[in-house]
Sequence to fold (207 residues):
Amino acid sequence: MAKISDRYYFDCFVKCADYACQAARLLKDVLAHFDTETLPDKLKEMHVIEHNADTCKHEMMTELIKAFITPIERDSISELSHHIDNVTDRLEDVLIRLYTNNIRSVRPDAIEFADVIISCCDATKEALVEFIDFKKSKKIYEQIVAIHNLEEQGDKRFLNCMRRLHTECTDLLEIIGWREVFVYMERCADSCEHVADVMANVIMENI
Fold:
């Protein structure tokens, strides 16, 4: 059996991150052009992305099980793939909450929040592209810091969204529904930060 290239794992990380970027843009599109009639179809579209991300992850795990030597520690490959996959999962969770909570109209600050999430996902993918050369890269540290900064923007956006929701909205069911949506949106940014943390740990362990 031919040995797979060490690059295989890094390419899979980027491919999985790209699915997260696709999911983030789909979420933004749903929010910006919100239509309760088409929401079930958008859920199916999101699930296809999530399923493709899962397939990519499972294929990588299958190769990892068979591999004799890996470019970084097996646990790090497994942990990193898990957190990258979590980003896509959390994005699907947001769309599911829009549907199950029977959201009827979109709050403008949710669209702004989605923009921050897109930036988080894009920054995460860019860092993973650079990650293959992490021992020599001059940009990887800046990219990891950028992800943390974007996650902080997500935290601030979350606080502002929740404040406006509880001070401007008088419909209890709407408050409950949107509160859960915002919680899951905040988790999307958190998931990107977790990816950055694993990359930082791998770098520290290999310098």
Q: What stands out?
A: The CA atoms of residues 130 and 139 lie 7 Å apart. DSSP finds six helices and no strands in the chain.
